[in-house]
Amino acid sequence: MKPSIYYPVKPFHLNQAFGNNIPCVKDFGLPTQTIVSGADNNTCPVGYEKLYKKFGMLGHNGSDLQAVEQNVYAAHDGVVVETQSVPSRGLGVGILSNEQFNFGTQGTHFFKLRYWHLKSFYCESGDSVKAGQLIGVTDNTGYSSGNHLHFEMQLMDKDAGNKPCVAFPNNGFAGAVNLEPFFNNIYAQDISTLIPVYQRLAWTLQAMINVLKAK
Asked: Is domain 5-17+62-209 classified as CATH 3.30.565.10?
């Protein structure tokens, strides 16, 4: 089974896709640091360098979603395993899936969804969350050139002590994969009204299966 990921913010507009290499930085890590958009994946203004290579990455390791200061909703069920602030990403939350999923040639893994550049969050490490649950508010914290949500999927395994670990930390994207093929085109904040519909469909399908088995 493949994962089914809801849109965490509404409306959905993709500002920067996975693998893109648009941002450029000047004076990286200094108080005078500035980040601007390059013309394309290869060039930067004079005096600037590509940002992601500073982190040892080949390009963008998530999907940047357009957002003003607004609510963020969990895009999948899971357990909060990460709530932290780091200089490059600002404030963020990471939520690990409860079960493993099939990622084709990459095998079967858990996954962690990461929500970054937040202003605040409404969950703590160890919390169980459901898809559609309010988990935070977007902002522009960290190395960011404008208000948006950095939304990221890392493939995860569990070590001998049952602790989550990144499955492919050296894949050039810090263990992340493109999550865009797994979007189900439904907004997480809307699913509270859709869940009863899904339940009724499931019950109907199960009733049909039971009838066929009885024949």
From this structure: no
